[in-house]
Design brief:
Elements: H1 3-8, E1 25-29, E2 40-45, E3 48-52, E4 56-57
Antiparallel strand pairs: 1-2, 2-3, 3-4
């Protein structure tokens, strides 16, 4: 969620921008996210690195046993 919707919902103190102490799930792409062939290079959930293109899914304590399709 970006900052303006977060402000409208009055949750901009937790989400809407990348700042220390805020909740964030973040994906780093190899190119433009909408570009054909662009891949997720790194995925962070709750500030923890959980996936890299090089290594795939990384061990993560308390992660569900199965992943959604």
């Amino acid at each position: 969620m970006t900052i303006n919707p977060a402000k409208i919902l009055a949750i901009d103190n937790r989400v809407g921008s990348i700042e220390v102490g805020k909740d964030a799930d973040l994906t780093v792409w190899t190119g433009h996210p909408l570009e054909l062939g662009s891949k997720a290079d790194k995925v962070f959930i709750d500030g923890k690195l959980v996936f890299t293109l090089k290594d795939g899914f990384l061990p993560w304590k308390n992660r569900p046993a199965t992943l959604a399709p």
